[in-house]
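User: Structure please.
Assistant: Input sequence and predicted structure:
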Amino acid sequence: MTAPVHHITHPLIQHKLTLMRQKDRSTNSFRRLLNEISMLMAYEVTRDMPTQLIEIETPLEKMQAPVIEGRKTVFVSIMRAGAGFLDGMLNVVPGARIGHIGLYRDPKTLVAVEYYFKMPADMHERDAIVLDPMLATGNSAVAAVDRLKETKPKSIRFVCLLAAPEGLKNFTEAHPDVPVYTAAIDRELNEHGYIVPGLGDAGDRLFGTK
């Protein structure tokens, strides 16, 4: 059984995504919009996060009230574009730990090549949320989750801004146990492996590089 693909269609997210897609959007504006969208998506991704009751004291009395175990959550950023997603997510869950997976896509083969991997300790006690704005071919996402599974986290979710049907198929076949959260499922990949209509190269637009 394949884990669900959650298509997040909230009007605020869709509005901001439309602004991000525009080719004349400045680097500063693109970065700010991605930060805002990631905060909004965090609400959906964390909707069923487990809570525990702690005792607090209101101005009137003591009570048992729910809190999330933020320290048990790990945001795993696929470098480099995943960094743009990270800040917004941390605004919502500031106690989360952070892991990094460095991957680049070989321009000829489109295969993901790893160059960096660093996770918090005791991953078997933690829920991992993998962040990468683009799920294009899916090769980088598959490789990242392959590597992450070696640390045996309690659970894994994958969050992206845009997905192509080809990438979704590749990822869900490789990792049928990992749910995907995305703001848009675009038409297809072009001959260079870019999502179309898409928004271009998220890393270049985020960091102002070419």
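The first strand starts at residue 5 and ends at 7.
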